[in-house]
Design brief:
heterodimer, A: mainly alpha, two-stranded antiparallel ribbon, two-stranded antiparallel sheet, B: alpha/beta, Rossmann fold, six-stranded mixed beta sheet, four-stranded antiparallel beta sheet
Chain lengths: 380, 252
Amino acid sequence: MRFQFKTSYGQDIRLFRDKIAASWYGLLAVAALALPVILSEYYVGETTWVFIYAIGGISLMVLVGYTGLVSLGHAAFLGIGAYAHAFFLQHGMPWVVSLVLAVLITTASGLVVGLPALRMTGIYLAIATLAFAVIIQEVFSRWESVTHGFAGMPVAKPVIFGVPFEDDRSFYYLCLFFLVLALWLTRNLLRSPTGRAWIAIRDSEIAAQSMGVNLAIYKSMAFAYSAALMGLAGALFAHKIAYLAPDIFTILLSIQFLLLVIVGGLGSLHGAVFGAIFVALLPPVIAILRDSIPDSMADAASTTGIAAIGVVGELIGNFLKKPGVEAGIFGLILVLVILLEPLGIYGRWLKIRLFFSTFPMYKAATFKRQKSYMRSERLR
Amino acid sequence: MSFFEADQLSIHFGGIRAVDGVSFAVEQGEVFTIIGPNGAGKTTIFNLVSRIYEPTAGRLSFNGTDITNVPPHQIAALGIARTFQNIELFEHATLLQNLLLARHAHKKSGFFSELLFLPSVRRMEIEHREAVEKAIDFLDLQQYRDSLIVNLPYGVRKVTELARALCTDPRLLLLDEPSSGLNVEETEDMAFWIQDIRDLLGITVLMVEHDMSLVSAVSDRVLALNYGRPLAMGTPAEVQAHPEVIRAYLGG
């Protein structure tokens, strides 16, 4: 068990808790930098998806996990960022300018969507953002002079200051850079007054207001910042997917992002990254299992001579090949997480960490919460 | 002109006159208590003062300025802080973060300097922490500094709310039933703290309270309400002996 002895205010403010925590993150950074050298092109590409999803996850985490505003329309922001970036690139703008413009446009649209949020909460806000997403998707398919509708829109490979990022490995580093940037900026906000105001709005609007927080300004700020990050994720998404079509940015994608923040653990940046790993890697894992389970179980059947193993393997393989299985597994996991681990993967991570740091004195009751009904609902 | 004045303050919810023509004046440096049976309109007056409710009629003035039309988020910057009857802390944040949020009215940094966490932001943060530490010290909350509010017992949460209100550097402190849910000992501590807040920190206190022992221990003046209308005003002893007040509480 390690106790932290605090001797200065700086200790509460700095990025990493102590030198030990900082060195763990350093190791993680080294691992992330070394990954493309070790892994094959395919896995590098899949990890790039994790980074892009993580940026989107941070975006939604700011809104849902920290400010307590629900959005079912974040795929629309992703789409706006992606289409805007592709459009500007197509018209010959330099990569950096195009990216900045795409982020600015998404920020502006976030501000517009944020306006009704000043008067709506909970399920009503979810419906309003959902309506926005449906409208935007319709715009993507109809505004053919810009988006080319269902004919699709090719996206050029990024060329930054004359340096091409053509293969998967260099694009991996580009995405890693933007993920670290997004994490750093968001962490800065969260440790300064703006982040505290967001958390205050989440936990008690009336108290936040009485302490001097202008609800309208901070809620629109959360929406705008969240949209900006989603626009950034969208621009990278456009490069990664290489060909944009309106049916990519559906409500299912929005729900996938919501799933990401809930499974990862609401109210933590770690949660956004954990959730991204989960959401981005589950489909390839299912694909791998689909092929490998019947084969390996057939091998086991022939070596042991028990035919039943081969039959079971065949059944699992067939089940995983059925359409819609992926969405079903996502749904099942979401239900299980909400029932069994409301704090998400990050909550489980905290428990495991506490178990080892207090071994053998771990108390399971540390994370038990008593439901309290003291706060008044009348004034909200 | 008094330090804080409510003049013919009224609010009607449909046909219900929750507060009906209440006038009172609080002098600087006193503890002014509002008492009354349940539903008398005490908390409603607090919500009017902190501008959460819009008064139907009447005026509020603080330190010579009219605050009847000030938006609720600017009340803290003027120097009025409050606590809530049903504790309204930020439950999934630490005690320290709760108190730091109370410094929001004194925030000077802009969005972009916070985004990059410039040295000026760091300097401000440390200043806020120094201010917060004074309140932690004053109310003996050191050992709970880094605990999440959800993990704290009720009594400590009550004190935390008081600390959070103090962190805004108020000149007028509104305490909504500071002793509700506290045991005898904690109520005594609360009485000492309220006296210290008045005498040592020089903060004027406007309080709603049911516990008459606390009221008579700390109040300089008391206003009794019933059905949104004032019944009596004076020293605690005078108000307690007033026949109208006795009738309101005991019936008859």
